[in-house]
Write a structure and sequence with these properties.
Residues 1-86 form the 2Fe-2S ferredoxin-type domain. This is 2Fe-2S ferredoxin-type domain-containing protein. The protein is 8% helix and 26% strand. The chain is mostly beta strands. The protein has a single domain (15-85), classed as Beta-grasp domain (Ubiquitin-like (UB roll)). Strands 1-6 form a two-stranded antiparallel ribbon. A two-stranded antiparallel ribbon has the order 2-4. It has a two-stranded antiparallel ribbon with strand order 3-5. The structure holds FE2/S2 (inorganic) cluster. FE2/S2 (inorganic) cluster (FES) is lined by residues 32-35, 37-42, 63, 71, 73.
């Protein structure tokens, strides 16, 4: 029987940087495809559900996501954000 391992990481964006780019800069491997907000491959859950206020999308993404998730390729964070990596 396999067990899903979940890692919580804190990521801070530099000016104009997406969460996905910030995660990659910090050495994390995150799944992605379009990097434009329409496939949903980069969707990650927030570790702290009170953090959506810190997130902004430059353009409204087309891919679906829950309130406690973020599309990392097109979201930017004004403060450090804790995300769950699986
Ligand atoms: S990589 Fe496609 S929505 Fe983020």
């Amino acid at each position: 029987m396999s067990q899903l391992v979940e890692e919580v990481v804190t990521v801070a964006c530099e000016a104009g940087e997406s969460l996905l780019s910030a995660l990659e800069r910090q050495g994390h491997r995150v799944e992605y495809q379009c990097r434009q907000g329409y496939c949903g491959a980069c969707r990650l859950p927030l570790a702290d559900e009170s953090q959506p206020q810190a997130l902004t999308y430059l353009r409204p993404p087309l891919a679906w996501h829950e309130d406690n998730e973020v599309l990392t390729c097109c979201a930017h964070a004004s403060t450090p954000v804790c995300l769950k990596l699986t």
